[in-house]
């Protein structure tokens, strides 16, 4: 056996010896005091290692002490334990539940298998509950109340913090002044209220009223079933009143991101009604030129109609996604239109029209030049014609004069 093997073997022997010694020590435990009843049943055993066993029989015997006082009390008849101080009847038999435990002062635990720790806490009836802190109450079965003046009255309810209340079955209230009264509801934060079944209210002064509603943030209220309301720290309330409605206010703006590094997405600045979305050249690739005249030709044949979404009265104008995709092949597929694509198509069409307009303007300018030249030529012709007419008139006048002189001579 090598050295490592010998060391391991020696350690194993020492470990075994230690375990055997510990077992022997446990086995050698010696009772220092034993108290027996008349039937030889041991009711108290004290051992030399400070071990202590206090026995008893469930359902038998009276409570050991009543009334006010400071005491450590084991009540075997109900398998109940008390330690601390009773200021009145809190620890009298009527206020002690089967298998209950109370530590502290003025705690009442009537519920079976329940626990109270602190000051003035109570488990008034239903069992398997816990109340701790200061003046907290766990009155619902299997409930938990922990903190300052909190109440868990619903079955399987939990109330934590200060002045919180969970009334609904399997409800949870946490924080300060929160209330969860709907079954399976949750209220967290400060002054929040989850009143509807399976509702959630979180933040400050939010209220979730309808079934399955969610109210988050500050001063938000969700009334319509299945609705969502989010409020910022503005003082006016944000309300989702319609069923399955989503309402959110962020006066500092919204930022929506679609990449892990937050480099792409859209912003809706505070006070604005227009989205600003990622469009940097650095975020794009696979650039290619597109012929604007071809786009114009396709636009000319693209059906554009007035229409409404099914079941809604509001009217709109535009193409359907199938026709747009068939014409241009842009976007995610034939049932949607990406908002950036109609903008790009429109801008490209405007550029093509601008080029056509410029060409027409140039052609028009050339025609105007030709027209001006023709007008000048016509004017020159008209001027020459006037001169010729004047000369002709002069010749006619001269002919008439000569003819008159000849006639006079012949006479």
Summarize the structure.
The chain is α/β, with parallel strands linked by helices and 411 residues long. The protein is built from four helices and 31 strands.
Please describe the structure with a list of short key phrases separated by commas or semicolons.
single chain; 411 residues; alpha/beta; Alkaline Protease, subunit P, domain 1; 4 domains; 8-stranded parallel β-sheet; rod-shaped
Task: Tell me the layout of helices and strands.
Blueprint: H1 3-27, E1 31-36, E2 42-47, E3 52-54, E4 69-75, E5 80-86, E6 101-105, E7 108-109, E8 115-119, E9 122-123, E10 130-134, E11 137-138, E12 144-148, E13 151-152, E14 158-162, E15 165-166, E16 172-176, E17 179-180, E18 186-190, E19 193-194, E20 200-204, E21 207-208, E22 214-218, E23 220-222, E24 228-231, E25 238-240, E26 246-248, E27 253-257, E28 265-269, E29 276-277, H2 292-301, E30 305-307, E31 316-318, H3 321-328, H4 340-410
Parallel strand pairs: 5-6, 6-8, 7-9, 8-10, 10-12, 11-13, 12-14, 13-15, 14-16, 15-17, 16-18, 17-19, 18-20, 19-21, 20-22, 21-23, 22-24, 23-25, 24-26
Antiparallel strand pairs: 1-2, 2-3, 4-5, 27-28, 28-29, 30-31
Helix pairs in contact: 2-4
Structure description:
The chain is built from four helices and 31 strands. It is α/β, with parallel strands linked by helices. The chain folds into four domains: 61-163, 2 Solenoid (Alkaline Protease, subunit P, domain 1); 177-251, Alkaline Protease, subunit P, domain 1 (2 Solenoid), CATH 2.150.10; 258-287, no CATH class; 292-411. The radius of gyration is 49 Å and the shape is rod-shaped. The mean pLDDT is 91.
């Amino acid at each position: 056996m090598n050295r490592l093997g010998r060391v391991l073997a020696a350690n194993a022997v020492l470990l075994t010896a230690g375990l055997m010694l510990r077992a022997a020590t446990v086995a050698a435990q010696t009772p220092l005091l034993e108290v027996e009843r008349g039937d030889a049943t041991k009711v108290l055993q004290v051992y030399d290692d400070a071990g202590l066993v206090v026995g008893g029989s469930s359902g038998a015997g009276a409570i050991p002490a009543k009334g006010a006082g400071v005491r450590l009390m084991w009540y075997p008849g109900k398998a109940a334990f008390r330690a601390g101080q009773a200021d009145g009847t809190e620890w009298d038999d009527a206020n002690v539940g089967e298998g209950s435990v109370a530590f502290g002062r003025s705690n009442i635990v009537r519920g079976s298998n329940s626990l109270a720790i602190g000051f003035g806490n109570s488990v008034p009836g239903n069992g398997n509950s816990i109340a701790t802190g200061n003046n907290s109450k766990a009155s619902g079965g299997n409930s938990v109340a922990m903190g300052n003046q909190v109440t868990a009255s619903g079955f399987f309810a939990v109330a934590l913090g200060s002045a919180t209340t969970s009334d609904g079955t399997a409800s949870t209230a946490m924080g300060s002044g929160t209330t969860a009264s709907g079954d399976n509801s949750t209220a967290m934060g400060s002054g929040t209220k989850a009143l509807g079944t399976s509702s959630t209210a979180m933040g400050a002064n939010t209220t979730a009223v309808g079934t399955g509603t969610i109210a988050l943030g500050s001063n938000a209220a969700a009334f319509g079933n299945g609705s969502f309301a989010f409020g910022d720290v503005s003082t006016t309330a944000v309300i989702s009143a319609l069923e399955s409605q989503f309402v959110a206010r962020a006066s500092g703006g919204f930022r929506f991101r679609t990449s892990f590094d937050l480099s792409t997405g859209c912003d809706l600045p505070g006070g604005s009604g227009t989205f600003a979305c990622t469009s940097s050249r650095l975020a794009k690739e696979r650039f290619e030129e597109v012929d604007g005249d071809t786009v114009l030709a396709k636009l000319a044949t693209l059906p554009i109609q007035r229409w409404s979404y099914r079941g809604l009265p509001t009217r709109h104008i535009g193409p359907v996604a199938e026709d747009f995709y068939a014409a241009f092949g842009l976007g995610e597929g034939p049932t949607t239109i990406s908002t950036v694509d109609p903008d790009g198509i429109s801008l490209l069409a405007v550029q093509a029209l601008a080029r056509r307009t410029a060409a027409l303007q140039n052609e028009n300018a050339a025609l105007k030049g030709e027209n001006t030249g023709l007008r000048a030529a016509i004017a020159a012709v008209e001027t020459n014609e006037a001169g010729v007419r004047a000369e002709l008139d002069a010749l006619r006048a001269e002919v008439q004069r000569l003819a008159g002189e000849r006639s006079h001579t012949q006479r």
